[in-house]
Amino acid sequence: MPGNAFGTAFRFTTWGESHGLAIGGVVDGVPPRLPLTEDDIQPWLDKRRPGQSKFVTQRKEPDRVRILSGTFEGLTTGTPISLIIENVDQRPRDYSEIKDLFRPGHADFTYWKKYGIRDYRGSGRASARETAMRVAAGAVARQVLNAAWGDTFRIRGAMVKMGALEIDRARWDWDIVGDNPFWCPDAAAVPVWENFLTVARKAGSSAGAVLEIHGEGVPPGLGEPVYDKMDADLAKAMMSINAVKAVEIGDGFAGVELPGEDAHDTMHMEDGAMVFDSNRAGGTLGGITNGEPLVVRFAVKPTSSLPRPRPTVTVDGEDTAAITKGRHDPCVGIRAVPIGEAMMACVLADHWLRDLGQRGR
Amino acid sequence: MPGNAFGTAFRFTTWGESHGLAIGGVVDGVPPRLPLTEDDIQPWLDKRRPGQSKFVTQRKEPDRVRILSGTFEGLTTGTPISLIIENVDQRPRDYSEIKDLFRPGHADFTYWKKYGIRDYRGSGRASARETAMRVAAGAVARQVLNAAWGDTFRIRGAMVKMGALEIDRARWDWDIVGDNPFWCPDAAAVPVWENFLTVARKAGSSAGAVLEIHGEGVPPGLGEPVYDKMDADLAKAMMSINAVKAVEIGDGFAGVELPGEDAHDTMHMEDGAMVFDSNRAGGTLGGITNGEPLVVRFAVKPTSSLPRPRPTVTVDGEDTAAITKGRHDPCVGIRAVPIGEAMMACVLADHWLRDLGQRGR
Amino acid sequence: MPGNAFGTAFRFTTWGESHGLAIGGVVDGVPPRLPLTEDDIQPWLDKRRPGQSKFVTQRKEPDRVRILSGTFEGLTTGTPISLIIENVDQRPRDYSEIKDLFRPGHADFTYWKKYGIRDYRGSGRASARETAMRVAAGAVARQVLNAAWGDTFRIRGAMVKMGALEIDRARWDWDIVGDNPFWCPDAAAVPVWENFLTVARKAGSSAGAVLEIHGEGVPPGLGEPVYDKMDADLAKAMMSINAVKAVEIGDGFAGVELPGEDAHDTMHMEDGAMVFDSNRAGGTLGGITNGEPLVVRFAVKPTSSLPRPRPTVTVDGEDTAAITKGRHDPCVGIRAVPIGEAMMACVLADHWLRDLGQRGR
Amino acid sequence: MPGNAFGTAFRFTTWGESHGLAIGGVVDGVPPRLPLTEDDIQPWLDKRRPGQSKFVTQRKEPDRVRILSGTFEGLTTGTPISLIIENVDQRPRDYSEIKDLFRPGHADFTYWKKYGIRDYRGSGRASARETAMRVAAGAVARQVLNAAWGDTFRIRGAMVKMGALEIDRARWDWDIVGDNPFWCPDAAAVPVWENFLTVARKAGSSAGAVLEIHGEGVPPGLGEPVYDKMDADLAKAMMSINAVKAVEIGDGFAGVELPGEDAHDTMHMEDGAMVFDSNRAGGTLGGITNGEPLVVRFAVKPTSSLPRPRPTVTVDGEDTAAITKGRHDPCVGIRAVPIGEAMMACVLADHWLRDLGQRGR
User: What are the tens digits of pLDDT across the range B213-241?
Assistant: First the structure.
């Protein structure tokens, strides 16, 4: 069983290496008669695109998506949607000197061990470039969900920690998230992070980050017991993103410290409707959505491509040092916000269609 | 797509409610000619079984497993292995008064929303009782892996935090893990936890926990890019366990705070072999095992069944309070250690067979 | 990827060998709140059960099914339904002398080649006994479809050819199908077949058969282009039944001989509704149901277990002869009618739920 | 669950409509380090390409395939292989007058019923054009199998019946199959068929065909009991091809007429090796290959696009007539030979990798 597809009812398969001719994906399972053109996808890709501030890689990729199939006169037809992005800014020269060594923190070594062959140009298939297709698939997923759930449905994300610098959640303001280069919801944190990351970048260092994605307006009842729980699939989705090393839902690790009587969301009636008194669970109970906002956090490790020598070995078993001269992000977490949002959209579209398919009528 | 199966090449499907006649599972994809009898499975179930100390539920379930198919004269035949455990200690009376309300922190509400019908006896399918079958499947997975990888392969787990009380990792001693009721590797922490949990239990409270599972002797090259990464599947596996709300690999969330130059595992040659200088990655790079021990931690929320009233609502929309009178664990995390171990075994067996199936010869 | 499961949205996994303790299956994906008890399944099993006439095996198996999970107070709960049938009439003695040889026409040789181990008692997993679980799963599928489609939906089957003796389709009468031991719809053929099969049986021979299954009242629009077409999945379903060697839909092979202008179903309007002028397509166009009755035929080869010596070789590579002394069907096709019906029900339930899951709302 | 993918371990997903910008596919699961360039694929596409004789459609499509990912320096890398063929000869004008009606024998009606929207240009996704991608995937599958099984492995196909005209199997000569426009193995049949099809074409009629595909040099032991049997998957593969209505393995339907003692392949020892005395089973026993050549036949119905008026109805429910003015094949079966060969290659590659993945070491 190969592993380049995600989802079951809403299923996308991606392909492409960072320095090949193109990257692309096929989204299968999209319901018919939904509005979909390149204009519905491009804005999300733009959000992820490199080169937008000095804090992300300066690699110039317009990341212009094209739809090659599956739509007719602006509507989906129920047939597979093929998406393609041509690779424009290919500079294989940059990578020639890393050809025969294993960069620390990269997948060079493990791809070599698994496949015995490696497309060494820009990490090949392990490149973060693959995530552009996740964002594109997420845009298609949003069309599915918007049509089904309407305006109250919304997915949005933010960076809540950079390096050791955490936001003050009391100052959380969604309105400023799009106005700073870090998707930071805490205005006071922005200049601090800016200073921190500038210093790190100049020092040839890099920084990790914690991101938080919210899904609002999600109906209760989604998620399939017992192995394909909503939170299990969200965890898999986020952990499959490059450089992610941890995922939590709701209170997550912090919830462990609470006494049992404070750790669960009690309920009461209000104006004839059941209301949860809190959302410690982060929107799921028993792996099924409960109607509260989904809250997922995940950790992105510091960028492993560094412009300073790091000890490693060559393919032929000799000690050496790796140094990255190319263009790279000092904090890859920044660009992971739209990716995390997209993966949540894909998981939700998948579970929405799965749930429809279990209702029986 | 229903959700009661886990894995692809090594695939198990479980069934059964906590208060039905039995619970069971079918393990499909087990290679032929491996030794397997009930005696290979029972010890792992005994490790998870209730009633072994005052810190776990006193429900009396012998959890005696029977193999109904798939073996012949003590060896697997390559056909599906059916496992069954009869439910002995059924006391439906205990649950009659929770029949019409939604217990906080339980799946009552979400099952109701999803299915419109609910087997209210002891949480039905959402009961932790289902995890017995995970442990049984894990025992079968171990037979697969032992035959392939030999003696250097080992999975073991421990509890590293109870409530807010964390172990001192400098005192980690695997040898004592089996000798205390908490799977605690820090001898000094045991009496502290014992006191803490006794107080909590008497107060009608409960405690969360963080568990850590190690997989040693795992060959490099396992995990399928890009969506079925080893860490992604481990995250899904752990997050699918009842009450788990967070998962991390290697440094996990803590790794975010490190500067890039300290966050990745450098390499050097030693006696002709490549050696990693550290294991911050927790055994995976690019979603593929690197030969270092797999290190996974996950958070189990405090038990939600409490012997004290908690505000909630009834099925008919009236305010009420839920109180659990039955026998329950003050810290469900304790019994999750063998479950986490079993899930890692299943993920590894699955990826081992998947990898074999991608080699082509 | 193991192969003991069928379907995707309506998915069942079977287990068990003919001479083990029991056989069973798990049906996952059944919608909640459908009526289901053992009484909904048993009649279909009785239809397939051995020992009902002198033309089927005299093996005595009551084939009493039990539901072990997934229902509550007579209704499905949306959780997996575990079904079990205990093996009562086990006589391992009968099989001792075939232990070390490969019976012609049986799976003995290929199981040996594939697995290197073989449960030789009564064909193990390759026994037709496994089909009892298909019939049980089919009964569950019917509950799904009856609830969704109502009374106009009906699946029924008949035998249309035994050996070289074909029915006269002009005499087709569904009403007599259940009243003769062959599920024959042509009253005039019954005594002819009876004589033919009696002679064959006494001569130590056996006969093949062609069966035809009709699915009426199936809504248009079911089937997933392009690989999971309705006819493709029906073909797989029927071909997976023991001893089946051919499948056709509608005109099938005979349709090849028609000129193009006569080979397709034209349409016209009648009372405001579109009507097909014929059903040469057998109910599918482009792999999607068109609202006409599904018509599937399949060929069952003559029983391979014969009470006369047949040349073969031993496991150790010596020439020998195989002879079956046990109780066997002179025409296994007879008992395949309810199995074919059940497989059609399973395919339809699967595609019905899949289609629901692609509609998007 | 969408349906545009085939296979599990060797899995390909196709996309594209006949008159869109391009068609394509992604092949996932291909083992690494196999030789693969466009030159390994193009010859098989050329074999299927339109416009090669007066007996196939004159639509001009160079069908030039490009590999967009998954290879590096002429070798596969283990990552997904993206294949694309641009649509060159798009003439949407030809289809404008069939826009609002349902052509008999086509999928127009059923796509409309299923999706409520239809890309009416040249049958959209239901076009036989999709099969080009099957042929391309088959070429990749052959690389997998050639590397594993060597020179004794070979797949080849022939047409054995056109309309009512069957070949004389005594005259079967593989050497002439590639030298006539019909893939006919009987030299005497060629001029007869040529005359027959010329007359049919001029009369505005069309003809059906029966094709036979052989797989030689296939090792025993492939196929997964009990639902994913080799013959079940071959049946699905062939039945999923456009216009196919019947499939049989080995003796198929004809085997029904044999007495049991003549219907099965007996065995004997010869020079120390087991030898089958015949191949009535067509290479499978119990759904597992037995080492004998796989023999599959399938029926292709007469072309449904006819240049003469046929009664039908419009989308708006009015009686009308459909007539096809475009370029079409008088016998679509001709071009189905390489498609059937390709599907067999894909099924074998899939089961080969699946079997490897079940061996355990």
Answer: 999 999 999 999 999 999 999 999 999 99
Q: Test A355 with B114 for CB contact under 8 angstroms.
A: yes
Q: To the nearest 10°, the Cα dihedral for A52, A55, A56, A60?
A: 50
Pairing of strands D267-270, D273-276: antiparallel
Confirm if B128 and B50 have CB atoms less than 8 A apart: no
Strand residue runs (E) in B105-180: 154-162, 165-166
Helix, coil or strand: residue C63 = coil
Tell me the ipTM for this assembly. 0.97
Chain-centroid distance, C-alpha C237: 8
- Of B253, B175, B256, B167, which is closest to residue B210 (Cα–Cα)? B167
- Alpha-carbon distance of A189 to B344, in angstroms, equals 39
Q: Which residues pair with A166 in a beta bridge?
A: A161
Handedness of CA A87, A92, A98, A99 (dihedral sign): positive
Q: Residues D191, D197: contact at Cβ < 8 Å?
A: no
Q: What is the DSSP letter of B38?
A: H
Instruction: Give the distance from residue C151's alpha carbon to the nearest chain A alpha carbon, in angstroms.
Output: 15
Cα distance between the two ends of chain B:
32
Residue of C nearest to D219 (CA): C113
Q: Which residue has the tokens 């898999």?
A: A236
Distance, CA of C81 to CA of B13 (rounded, Å): 11
Total beta-carbon pairs less than 8 A apart between chain B and chain D: 55
Neighbours of C39 (CB within 10 A): 10
> What SS3 state is found at D181?
coil
Q: Per 3-state DSSP, what percentage of chain A is helix, strand, and coil (rounded to 5)?
A: 35, 25, 40
Q: Determine the Cα–Cα distance for residues D234 and D236; give it in Å rounded to an integer.
A: 5
**3-class DSSP state for residue A324?**
coil
How wide is the angle at C-alpha B278 spanned by C-alphas B272 and B279, nearest 5°?
110
Q: Using alpha carbons only, how large is chain C's radius of gyration in Å?
A: 21
Q: Report the C-alpha gap between C230 and C224 in whole angstroms.
A: 7
Chain A interface test: which of D68, D112, D130 (most A C-beta within 10 Å): D68
Can you tell me the distance from the alpha carbon of C14 to that of B82, in angstroms, rounded to the nearest whole number? 9
State the DSSP code for C237: H
Q: In terms of CA atoms, which chain C residue is nearest residue D230?
A: C240
φ/ψ of B277, rounded to 5, equals -80, -10
Q: How many CA atoms lie within 13 A of D190 on its CB side?
A: 17
What is the nearest CA distance from B290 to chain A, expressed in angstroms?
6
Query: DSSP assignment of D1-16, as one string?
Result: --B-EE-SSSEEEEE-
What type of residue is B174? W
The rounded distance, in Å, linking the Cα atoms of A276 and A267 is 4
Task: Quote the CA–CA distance of B328 and C250 in Å, as a whole number.
Answer: 60
d(CA C204, CA C330): 8
- Pairwise CB contact (< 8 Å): C32 & B119: no
What are residue A66's DSSP bridge partners? A84
How is residue B278 written in tokens? 């550290």
> Each residue of C103-137: pLDDT tens digit?
999 999 999 999 999 888 878 899 999 999 999 99
What distance in Å separates the CA atoms of residue D247 and residue B356, rounded to the nearest whole number? 32
Quick one: residue C70, left, alpha or beta (phi over 0 = left, psi -120 to 50 = alpha)?
A: left
Whole-structure pTM over 0.90, yes or no?
Answer: yes
C-chain residues within 8 Å CB-CB of B75? Answer: 117
pLDDT of residue C50: 63
- Burial string for B37-66 (b: 16+ CB within 10 Å, else e) reads eeebbbebbebbbbeeeebbbebebebebb
CA atoms within 13 A on the CB side of B133: 33
> Tokens in use for B323?
């109180």
Task: State the pLDDT at residue D327.
Answer: 65
d(CA A208, CA A105) in angstroms, rounded, equals 13
